[in-house]
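Suppose you are handed only these lines of text.
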Amino acid sequence: MKKQFSHDFHYQILFGFATVERKWRIPLVASSLVSVILFLVATLTLRPSSSSGSSSFLAFRQTLEQRPLFAEDMTVEQQQRSVQDEKSPVQQPAPLPRLAYMISGSKGDYEQMRRTLQALYHPRNVYILHLDLDAQPRERLELARYVRSDPVFIEVGNVLVIAKSNLVTYRGPTMVSTTLHGAAILLKSRKDWDWFINLSAADYPLITQDDLLHVLSYLPRELNFMEHTSAIGWKEYYRAKPIIIDPGLYVGKKSDIFYISQRRSLPTTFRLFQGSAWTVMSRSFIQYCIMGWDNLPRTLLMYYTNFVSSPEGYFHTVICNSEQYRNTTVNHDLHYIAWHTPPRQHPLSLTLTHFRNMTQSGAAFARKFRKDDPVLDVIDKQLLGRQPGKFTPGGWCVGTSPDEDRCSVIGDTAILRPGPGAKRFEGLIVSQLVPATFRANQCVLPEDRRVLLRQQSHRSPEVGSKQTSRLFS
Ligand SMILES: *[C@@H]1O[C@H](CO)[C@@H](O)[C@H](O)[C@H]1NC(C)=O
Ligand SMILES: *[C@@H]1O[C@H](CO)[C@@H](O)[C@H](O)[C@H]1NC(C)=O
Ligand SMILES: *[C@@H]1O[C@H](CO)[C@@H](O)[C@H](O)[C@H]1NC(C)=O
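From them, the structure of the protein bound to 2-acetamido-2-deoxy-beta-D-glucopyranose can be written out as follows.
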């Protein structure tokens, strides 16, 4: 019954999207968009007993956030938001978010990074670029020159380049520290972004920023998109027990991690989680990790220094062991990634044969792509409407002269023109936020899963799925 409902609903929502041009703070006319909010409210309520749909978005926010008792627990955002919440009635259009992107690359990645940046660019967002120490000085210079000379970047000033590059060891803790480094600079340089998105030069968007910002505007800013599991299986032996050293921490030349002959036991003061190294994290969670007003992120950072493939576990373990943040996880990385069967260390390079699956997935990003693979041109043409060497057009591009780039004239950045990509992405988001999926997949421990299975086996599937959401809310 639930399925039927969401399907019909969905259909209705999709229709409203096609020609929406929205402006921040202008009241909404399209009732279908309001339906999205109501739908999310209904699916997001923490306590199923009150999920009649009448409970408000604000109530959700408050329960999710739980006003802190101690002053040092309250972030600046929470203080500001608690003032805003009282002012803004639910019916107003959702304020637009801002995204903070970190795009990383290594030797030979400059051109690919430039293309990814152009495809992802929107004046509302902020971008930080990191070419690691393995890249040629020439490439780093070229990158800096490009960012310094593009008239749009000059005017908006939202593209930063990390000058003091880090040496990054794949699978090593230097990867995590580089990500934290980029996030720290973003926190310091801009006060107004909502989500941090970590990408590499070999990633590419499948929807426009207008699509992404539009759909995200309806979501609570606290959500963290992080694919994770506690079922670490064989990795317990190959990842959690070995002790590694990352030479990138103390020598200036790139080399792989090395193993110590001794092994360690599994931790008992926290539980291990792992998952995709590609995440979309809330500003609040990033602050928590970097400013460390609780000692957990720091302790875990030290623990993960000697862990194989720490980027696939650090943030996941922090968030799932944090009482304050575990309820904010959405178990999806918003990426389309294809693996070999059986999976190998690196994912498949995507080509035209994946185009259909990629699009149908509804994902916001895909990886990984070879430089100038023909499928990128198809994505540009069919999904992004992007011309070679130009920005992905959006509501902010208001140039009218036929022989110049429309995006060379910057209009109101709060005007979005979401297209079919917003529908696809919304489909993915809705599928992740229906109660049975959302709550039932948050930081579930193996023992919780067993309880869940036992309970389900005593009930009909319909009741069972309801029970799932109850158990974890
Ligand atoms: C961040 O992005 C890079 C891409 O350069 C990736 O390899 C890394 O594992 C990501 N995640 C973390 C947690 O650092
Ligand atoms: C596309 O998805 C279908 C169904 O999940 C799968 O069977 C097929 O192998 C996928 N194709 C490619 C090229 O990955
Ligand atoms: C998170 O959810 C659990 C139950 O799933 C609840 O007991 C706890 O109070 C929630 N935590 C916060 C900070 O909202």
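What can we learn from it? The longest strand covers residues 274-282. DSSP finds 19 helices and 14 strands in the chain.
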